[in-house]
Amino acid sequence: MRIVKLKQKNLNPFLEVISENTELWAPVRKYTDRHVFAQVEDVSQIDVDYTRTILPPRKIFLPPSFNMFTATEKEYKENFSHATKKILFGIHPCDIHGLLIMDQFFNYVFEDPYYTQARNNTLLLGHSCWPDEHCFCKSTRTHIIEEGYDLFFHRLSEDYLVWIGSSKGDDLIRLMPDCFEEKLSDEDIQFYIRLREQRNEAFQTEVNFTAMPDLMELKYNHPLWEKIGTACLACGSCTNVCPTCNCYNVMDHPQLKERGSLIHRDWDTCTLQSYSEVAGGENFREKRSDRLKLWYTHKIQAYISKYGKPGCVGCGRCIATCPVDINVKTVSQALDGKDVDAFWNRLNKGEIK
Amino acid sequence: MNQENQCPPQTNPFKPEPARIVRTYYLTEDVKFFQVRIADMEKALSFRYKPGQFAMISVLGAGEAPFSISSTPSRPGLLEFCIRKAGVVTDALFRLKENHLIGIRGPYGNGFPIQNMKNHNVLIIMGGIGAAPLRSVLLNCLDNRDQFQKVTLLHGAKRPAEMIFRDEFFDIKDREDLECHLSVDQDDTGEWSENIGVVTTLFPKMEKIDPQQTYALVCGPPVMYKFVLQELLKLKIPRDQILMTLERRMKCGVGKCGHCAIDYIYTCLDGPVFTYWDVLHMRELI
Amino acid sequence: MNKDKVKIGIYELTGCAGDALLILDCENELLDIFKAADIQSFSMAKSDNIDGNLDVVLVEGSVSTEREVEELKDIRKRSQLVVAIGLCATVGGIQARFTNPKEWEKNFKKVYGDVKMEHTPPLQSKPIDDYVKVDYYLPGCPIGKEQFLHLFTRIVKGAPPEKYPRPVCVTCKFKENDCLLNRDILCLGPLTADGCGAACISHNLPCVGCWGPVEGANLTSEYYLLKEKGFDVEYIKKKMANYSGTKIAEFFEKIKEEKK
């Protein structure tokens, strides 16, 4: 792998040059303290000092709602308008891992062209990060990334060390060759190594993933799930913010003015009551606890059995999002037999007066 | 990351093929038969499927839903479905007349393990709408009769008028190479010439078969499974030779939308045909 | 009149007529609406109304007089499909929030005194499904343009949409709003049916629940969560009751019992 060096002050000019003919997507600030991935017109909008965005980057590859077909009885015309050429800058290692999981999933047996088109048309320019209290990507071993990006920017004190991960990434570097130094000094390397060690020490949240597949199996009928179910608001936020959730619903929208329909594909959520209902009204998972079990089976058990790694990348979004403390951290701790300070426990112990 | 795929892919698994309804009529009060031909002749002939697989049918303006294929691959060109009125898509489908265009894509799912079933006895037990996927395997066995040992059909319905494919089964009932027993829970016509009683009352009438050499295929309403399974276990048919097909909500048929997930199994990819052994060892399956 | 067109009637019971008004407010689509269907009765829009047999009726407003009960039953008899539109028809509306009959009588007296209304005897306000079978619900106060046009187009082109209830939170997350509950603000998003596009929360205001309760809402959890956050119990109940009509009466009974 080739590694080059870029002065931090040259980052924005570089982004400007490479995005001249391509959409540039990057983290920008929303409210005072939140971030979202958005298309940026002006590189000064970009804020690399972020921990996590509200929605994961998968929204760029499969938007929450988009049109799959413009259809008449005779023809279903495909619509790939979401799959424009893009550069996604500022994506963190955990989110790149999330996309790698999505890559596997959306190419399993059948290829999902809506995903792969958008994915193939997007260059990933990663950026290093620092964990906050919710990050547990070290536990999922997704805190470092060795593949899957075109460029990866490691921030040092005044420079970036830039990993070149693909020939397309290298092509970008070549658009501004003078800005990149080929030679790294020993100090740079030492600084990078020290930073990496410090970052490893900075993680405050740990989840014992190796035990989870067995614990999910052993405690599948444990009363714990009922307790968690009593607290779940069934709002769907955990799945919507998860970088590895894939479920969707399809809806036919006939057009009032003309013949035919638009076939929309919308993100769906397994925690909703309507999710497992079949025609005729029978529901396979009427209980909230059953639906939660499905989600957690997928995140902390099933992917491990199927793909050898958890379906969770430790981004901490579910922790930051769920209003009632139901997230991978608390649930796995509870499965591990710990007395977790979570809303469902306070609710069931009658602590709320 | 695969960088090759810069142009639209050759095949979009979500893209329905326009297909024409060739024939449609009521089988019972709320079940209708649809014979369909994919409009593009080449695609119609290259639509290769296995008994037990399903297709996604779309009705423009209403939506898309999965349906078992009831025709047999041994008679290519036309696809047949046997559909019960149960929701928005089927409501719209029921209103369509012959010659109307619908969308079809597939085939999907694992289907029955026909290769393994060869040179074995095939015992088919259907109740109600369960005839939809099992008619495919029955006709396929009869069309390739020399590939199988004994073929037996047990078919139960609530009343004579509710027996799906009644005329068709009466036509083949006396074939020498098929043992066929039909039954209704209740005869409200007074003209029923066959057995009266639930489908399990047909078991004592069956000729003896070697259970180790038998595949039993079951599909019907949930209440039927429990009692039929007891009978099959009594006959000592191995649990991994008892096959059943399951129903789940599906939006894609190709393992992407997530609706049919059970654990890490996707009914649309790993099913809809499961062995009784699978069912016993997977959570949530029935 | 085209024989093939779906025959539609739009009727108003007790309410502010906001839903009928919203239909008229679809200005860009109005001509297409009237072109696509045979609208036989729509008293807000036209005068030559025919009250015959219909394919679909859209009913706005709650039932609050005996005459309205008769009218509604007649409408049901004349139509294949009945769609409740707007909060009043779907849950009873704000006027149905006094779920206790005794309380209603008390309030009625307070407002009208001992007046006897013989012509149209009043009833406690109820959603229309208290009296007739409803095939489809289109919530909202008033209904949303997008949801209405989707439903209307689906109906005139052959099939009502699949019922797919989901809470406001789903769209709210699509819009990448920060969760207000996490900022200790009383937001009813998780309890409320989606369709507004998370309008309030996108403007940094909490959801007040004007689309009515969503199927599968976990009222108990939200109630105790707000309680834990330090909100006054009566205030929480008032907020939850505002747009829930008679639909969460059972929950309030349960809360009462738990307190005892």
Question: Main traits of this protein?
Answer:
heterotrimer, A: 353 residues, alpha+beta, 2 domains, eight-stranded mixed β-sheet, four-stranded antiparallel β-sheet, 13 helices, B: 286 residues, alpha/beta, Elongation Factor Tu (Ef-tu), domain 3, Rossmann fold, seven-stranded mixed β-sheet, six-stranded antiparallel β-sheet, 8 helices, disordered N terminus
Describe this structure in words.
The complex is a heterotrimer of chains A (353), B (286) and C (260). Helix content of chain A is 33%, strand content 20%. By secondary structure, chain A is an alpha+beta fold. In chain A, the strands form 2 sheets. An 8-stranded mixed β-sheet of chain A has the order 3-2-6-7-8-9-1-10. In chain A, strands 5-4-12-11 form a 4-stranded antiparallel β-sheet, with no helix packed on it. The model of chain A has no long low-confidence stretch (mean pLDDT 93). Chain B folds into 2 domains: 17-108, Elongation Factor Tu (Ef-tu), domain 3, CATH 2.40.30; 114-245, Rossmann fold. Helices cover 21% and strands 29% of the residues of chain B. Chain B has helices spanning 41-45, 88-95, 114-117, 131-143, 166-172, 222-234, 267-270, 276-281; strands spanning 17-26, 31-38, 54-59, 63-68, 79-84, 101-108, 121-127, 151-157, 179-184, 195-196, 214-219, 242-245, 261-262, 265-266, 273-275. Mean pLDDT of chain B is 90; it is low at 1-9. In chain C, the strands form 2 sheets. In chain C, strands 2-1-3-5-7 form a 5-stranded parallel β-sheet. Chain C has a two-stranded antiparallel sheet with strand order 4-6. The mean pLDDT of chain C is 91. Chain C is 38% helix and 14% strand. Chain C has 260 residues and is an alpha/beta fold. Chains A and B meet through β4, α3, α4, β11 and α10 of A and β4, α2 and β6 of B.
